[in-house]
Amino acid sequence: MEKLVSTAESRRFMIDCFKIFGVPQNYAEQLADLLVAANYHGQISHGLNRLQHYLNDLSTKSADGTAVPKILKESPATAWVDGCNALGAVIANFCMDLAIKKVSVGFMPKIPIIVKCLVGIL
């Protein structure tokens, strides 16, 4: 018999899983939100079924759950970002926040990123 799990319960479960691997609450929430959104919007291939992939990457240190992306070089309209092997959602959110700041002061930003992991649905 098929049983549906609520979005909130799926999100909680994923956050708990990420925290077991030392991922900070904020990062765990970002990644869980991305995976839940993928499922909700019908992108099942990028949703909850990716949880094991992310947990494997964290357990083998292929991804660093605590890494903070950093700006390597920046101008008023551009930034070159190193994802520092962080989780894809964390890198994407970092770059999007940076782009929004640049747009808010009148620039059309271009932000190339060094990424070695899955970013998910964008």
Estimate the mean pLDDT confidence.
89
Report the helical percentage. Answer: 40-55%
CATH topology of the largest domain: Hypothetical Oxidoreductase Yiak, Chain: A, domain 1
The CATH architecture designation of the largest domain is: Orthogonal Bundle
At the fourth level of CATH, the homologous superfamily of the largest domain is: Malate/L-lactate/L-sulpholactate dehydrogenase, four-helix barrel
The helix tally amounts to 4
Tell me the name of the CATH class of the largest domain.
Answer: Mainly Alpha
How many strands, which pairing sense, and closed or not: the largest β-sheet? 3 strands, mixed
Q: Unreliable stretches, pLDDT < 50, 5 or more residues?
A: none
**What distance lies between the first and last C-alpha atoms, to the nearest angstrom?**
33 Å
- Rg measurement, Å: 16 Å
Element order, helices and strands? Answer: HHHEEHE
What's the number of extended β-strand segments?
A: 3
Using the alpha-carbon principal axes, give the shape. globular
Number of domains: 2
For the biggest β-sheet, the strand order reads: 1-2-3
Protein name: Malate dehydrogenase
InterPro entries: Mal/L-sulf/L-lact_DH-like_ah, Mal/L-sulf/L-lact_DH-like_NADP, Mal/L-sulfo/L-lacto_DH-like_sf, Malate/L-lactate_DH-like
Keywords: Oxidoreductase
GO molecular function: oxidoreductase activity
